[in-house]
């Protein structure tokens, strides 16, 4: 006699991005709402690759039980004995390493689609799952919809005769009208570093319908490897933007046509006026599936020769909603129910999507990309497992992200940026002028060097990560030196290092703020203006402050030692035109428009930046995938002064962390410093920090 107690599965969520949120909220709905009474789900843990705080915020957002544990690494999650199964919700680029990490730890795994970047990776995952004796499944949620099950049953029953052709399309129409699509180049949809492109993200759904209608229902001994003919248009990033595939099954004389594009849409008006996204054509009729290929809600059965409307069977398949969870329900719970039943029954793979079928579909996608000349980096396409891969630890992801969204941007816009930066902030100017004559100071992140000459009575060394900005700072030094020579009648002199003869007491060099080349306790003061908010994780921001504190002298008391002034953008900008304020998103991508003609700024003209999930190596996925680099909405208006951009003006996205009130002081304390003073000035927080006084004997 079957047990009346539902079988409970305890889930660990790997990544905290958009798809993880949708799936987890579905897990937490009441199964009875969808007429499921034999299994139930618990969320016992979630992990972010960047911080425990991020995982905790995720659990709070999805309203997980208070007992659910937050982890700041994937390694901790897979080591948790309370986790029965790990849901891998990172981008496709990370799936192989992340799923291997969980499988290697002996965990059952549900891994988001596309399963991997290459077929060899998919085979390696299956081999590992088999060797470890654990359950493993690709999370193609559409397969488990009641609608999909009904369609497969209709085909099996011969309702439309022998199926000879399936046409399936999932295209999203994001053409921006200027030759581009409205995703920044760093977005997971078009970024090859994240296995971007239409095929792996969207086209897999079109292939899902091809395979579950033409391949899956064949007897095992009659399943055949298909021929693949593909046409691929590549985006300027190297990812595929439009892909069309003919999948031929020669023995069965059937064709599947899978279409996907970022340029055009399979549902132009969002009302299905363009017709069915999927057409399954048989010798005796046709089944049309209406709605997006990943989440269809209706199908029609049209019999051959039928002329009257009464001969067309229309079936609606709505997704049940849980009123007790805010009327939530997206349809991802059905694949979770399948996992639970497999675990309950001791099955290691799902009959609805066997391992062999996931591999075959991956082989089709791999061949399609090969024919289209799409190549992904070795770090994401290798099938060599590395538990300490940056895809598992996230350690080097922040550096790569900042290279793309900070260092690379400022290097590209340096002259244009410098032309808008010429007036010191009052708080910074006051701090510099308060320094005693002969003091030695550092300007870390000096940009174009506008602060180097504020106080001519001190010696200053500026550093910046951008060689182009350092060159501009040297030019400024020369300009100031010439002015100084004119005012004193002197020929020059002073220190070298500013591209020739320099202003007395100034020098500039290229240096990374996290690896400062200065000796310990060498400076009387340090300024760091508008730099630390570009660090993409809190650990890196705190380390940057620690580096600044290392450079200043110790005193008998904090206020008598060297001091550090840090100046960052504030979240609380309610009175500004940007519209950012308390409670808003803190991690943004803010556009810089490289306008063809730059006007002198008359005031800040700006708009809200683009929300991102910053550097959680599973949060890069955004609308469907994990944590490697943040999901980024389409570019918005510039946050910088000047005329409106034209369609030909290049737009660069800069990462910012907006500091909330008190957060900068917290980071100073975490870095081992003390707060001497702090304040707010025109949309910015500032703090003057110092080292703890040395202990007395």
Automatic annotation (TrEMBL):
Keywords: Oxidoreductase. InterPro entries: Gfo/Idh/MocA-like_OxRdtase_N (IPR000683), Gfo/Idh/MocA_domain (IPR050984), GFO_IDH_MocA-like_dom (IPR055170), Methyltransf_11 (IPR013216), NAD(P)-bd_dom_sf (IPR036291), SAM-dependent_MTases_sf (IPR029063). Residues 597-650 are annotated as: Disordered. The keyword Chloroplast does not apply. Residues 442-554 form the Methyltransferase type domain. Residues 10-137 form the Gfo/Idh/MocA-like oxidoreductase N-terminal domain. It catalyses: D-xylose + NADP(+) = D-xylono-1,5-lactone + NADPH + H(+). Its EC number is 1.1.1.179. GO terms for molecular function: D-xylose 1-dehydrogenase (NADP+) activity; nucleotide binding; S-adenosylmethionine-dependent methyltransferase activity. Residues 150-287 form the GFO/IDH/MocA-like oxidoreductase domain. Pfam families: GFO_IDH_MocA, GFO_IDH_MocA_C3, Methyltransf_11. It comes from the Eukaryota. Belongs to the Gfo/Idh/MocA family. PANTHER family: DIHYDRODIOL DEHYDROGENASE, PUTATIVE (AFU_ORTHOLOGUE AFUA_1G07520)-RELATED, OXIDOREDUCTASES. This is D-xylose 1-dehydrogenase (NADP(+), D-xylono-1,5-lactone-forming). It comes from Corynascus novoguineensis.
